[in-house]
Design goal:
Radius of gyration: 26 Å
Strand order of the largest sheet: 1-11-2-10-9-3-4
Number of strands: 19
Keywords: ATP-binding, Helicase, Hydrolase, Isomerase, Nucleotide-binding
Protein name: DNA 3'-5' helicase
Helix content: 40-55%
Number of helices: 27
EC number: 5.6.2.4
Pfam family, one: UvrD-helicase
Strand content: 5-15%
Shape: globular
Bound molecules: adenosine-5'-triphosphate
GO molecular function, one term: helicase activity
């Protein structure tokens, strides 16, 4: 059934809302929540609406938009929802079985890959006796650097997946490769990878025994808990009579299973999304999953308008979409989108008089643009130079982690900031000291953040009374501290990256900007000339990118080998060749 983004729907039925970009899905969801808060007879004092969304930025936005209504709504990412409602209170009950040191767990983090742990894992591998030809030996795996690096790359792809009803761990074998600077490629053979794969839980346990869990582990343990202890499900149902998930197209299969479990009892479940915007395939999400998602007593709705973009931009989006065409709601003609052919920096500079946000497919392109456009130092360059200049590891790490913690806290994530401080040896695990240290630094931010690193060094020494190794006069390292700006360092912090005008397409998910330039590294515009939003994730990624634009849209390609191939795009785009 078609609805508009300000329509109300019955509050006691499960629902699925499908709508294209800029349709007002988030806007609609917030209204729906307010409607429930005003009219539900099932929301007593201690019961809440759960509203799950994809990123911490989205959590913040939804909370702000709910305003005073947010008290009875728990807005969070699925990981933090499950962590606080299931893992923290109950994981002790299965901890032994998984070698999980539950007392040490302090939140969840991005997956860590530590060389030392991989080494230990291989040394103690449960099927170590089979490490003989054609399987690489322990020595070949541990002592040859290219092999080590290839295994490292492979382990970085570690994920859970369902094998029948059980969750198993697997890695992507195509990533067990290392390419040296001279182009020589080292690839680990399949027999070795199969054997190593058989012990992946032992690898995980090396982290678990220290209480370290990542986001995917939160899903894994939650699933195990819910499967084994039905009373936990009952508690969730009692606490959250309504459970909604925004951006459902990027939900992975474990989350879907958990959501299905939650929906079996009295909780009303609603999912909102757009299968054409599913862009997290590498995490196991796929667009088919959203389309086939079904619950008992579920109403289906569609919103066909686009409230974000000008008509000319919506025309481009519609040219890619087969399932339905979006309607103009703003009904502003706008300018014809432009394909700009030539150097990216020239292209950005040409159109940068109005605020322009660039969206690139890869991080490396974003970094190149930042280096030229923002005249800041490429983050790795700076960290590399710092590492080279300051060989005193303790001092270097103290400075580095202190800045990471300060900037993370300033971005609103105080908990994460305190966690970062654990990496500093004199603060480790001492909550009171950490708190005091961070608070002073935040209170006095202006005293050290406007100029050079030396100011922060002096502040830590003199005001906080932490004695860092002296920086000798006229030494190379003192010169570095006296000449490197604090703000140069800040660029290294990811959360700051989010604020930049130059970002990856994935970072732009859910957001919108007036003017956008998509930066391509080649002239392949297949996603426009031959679009396939159902089967091709790359096409969906560019669809998401283009649909972030409200007013103006540019696509930059470095060259155009075959102008004829773009003939069909002339109605939709203007073509500009740069000198
Ligand atoms: N009913 C409405 N009245 C006024 N403005 C609206 C309404 N619905 C949505 N908007 C505005 O339209 C824009 C797009 O809305 P929103 O971000 O909720 O869309 P979305 O469907 O979640 O987008 P996407 O899937 O592309 O991220 C926003 O600027 C929002 O404030």
């Amino acid at each position: 059934m078609k609805i508009k983004s300000d329509d109300l729907i019955p509050i006691e039925n499960n629902f699925k809302v499908c709508a294209g970009p800029g349709a007002g899905k988030t806007y609609w969801l917030i209204n729906h929540i307010k409607n429930i808060l005003c009219n539900s007879k099932r929301l007593q004092k201690n019961r809440k609406i759960a509203c799950i969304t994809y990123t911490n930025v989205a959590v913040k936005t939804i909370n702000e938009r709910l305003g005073s209504y947010s008290k009875q709504v728990e807005v969070s990412t699925i990981h933090s929802f499950l962590y606080f409602n299931l893992l923290k209170p109950y994981v002790y009950s299965i901890a032994n079985e998984y070698g999980l040191n539950f007392r040490e767990i302090d939140g969840h983090q991005d997956m860590k890959v530590e060389g030392g742990k991989i080494r230990k894992w291989i040394k103690d591998h449960p099927r170590k006796n089979y490490f003989k030809s054609p399987i690489l030996s322990e020595k070949q795996l541990l002592n040859l650097q290219p092999n080590r690096k290839a295994i490292n790359n492979w382990i970085k792809t570690l994920r859970y997946k369902f094998n029948e009803k059980e969750l198993i761990l697997f890695c992507d074998n195509s990533k067990a490769v290392y390419k040296a600077d001279d182009g020589e490629e080292t690839r680990i053979n399949k027999d070795t990878l199969d054997l190593l794969s058989s012990g992946l839980f032992e690898y995980k346990k090396l982290y678990w025994q220290e209480g370290i869990i990542d986001h995917e582990d939160v899903l894994f343990f939650s699933y195990q808990l819910l499967k084994r202890y039905p009373f936990m499900l009952k508690i969730l149902n009692a606490k959250y009579p309504y459970f909604f998930i925004d951006e459902f197209q990027d939900t992975n299969p474990i989350q879907v299973k958990i959501i299905n479990m939650i929906a079996q009892e009295e909780t009303v479940v609603g999912v909102i999304g757009d299968s054409a915007q599913s862009i997290y395939g590498f995490q196991g999400a796929n667009c088919e999953q959203f389309e086939s998602f079904e619950l008992m007593n579920m109403n289906n709705y569609e919103i066909h308008g686009n409230r974000r973009s000008t008509n000319r931009i919506i025309d481009v989006l519609n040219s890619m979409r087969r399932d339905f065409k979006q309607k103009y709601i703003r009904n502003k003609e706008g300018e014809k989108p432009v394909i700009v052919i030539g150097d990216k920096i020239k292209a950005i500079n040409k159109y940068n008089n109005e605020k322009l946000v660039t969206l690139s497919r890869k991080n490396i392109t974003v970094n190149k643009i930042r280096k030229d456009i923002e005249s800041t130092i490429f983050e790795n360059d700076f960290l590399e130079r710092f590492k080279e200049a300051d060989s005193d590891k303790e001092r270097r790490y103290t400075i580095m982690d202190t800045i990471f913690a300060i900037e993370t806290a300033k971005n609103g994530n105080f908990r994460e900031a305190l966690k970062i401080l654990d990496r500093i040896s004199f603060l480790e695990k001492n909550k009171k000291n950490k708190f005091h240290y961070l608070k002073s630094l935040l209170d006095d931010y202006d005293k050290y953040s406007n100029d050079f690193l030396i100011d922060l060094y002096t502040y830590i020494n003199d005001v906080l009374n932490v004695k860092l190794t002296t920086l000798r006069k006229n030494s190379k390292i003192r010169y570095f501290y006296e000449n490197s700006k604090y703000k140069e360092f800040v660029i290294c912090v990811n959360s700051i990256n989010e604020k930049s005008d130059n970002k990856t397409i994935h970072q732009s998910k859910g957001d919108e900007f007036d003017n956008i330039m998509i930066i391509k590294e080649d002239d392949n515009l297949d996603f426009l000339t031959n679009p396939d939003l159902i089967n091709n994730e790359e096409h969906r990624i560019y669809y998401v990118a283009m649909s972030r634009a409200k007013e103006k849209l540019f696509i930059n390609i470095p060259y155009l080998n075959n102008p004829k191939s773009l003939k069909n795009l002339e109605d939709l785009f203007e073509f500009i060749y740069l000198e």
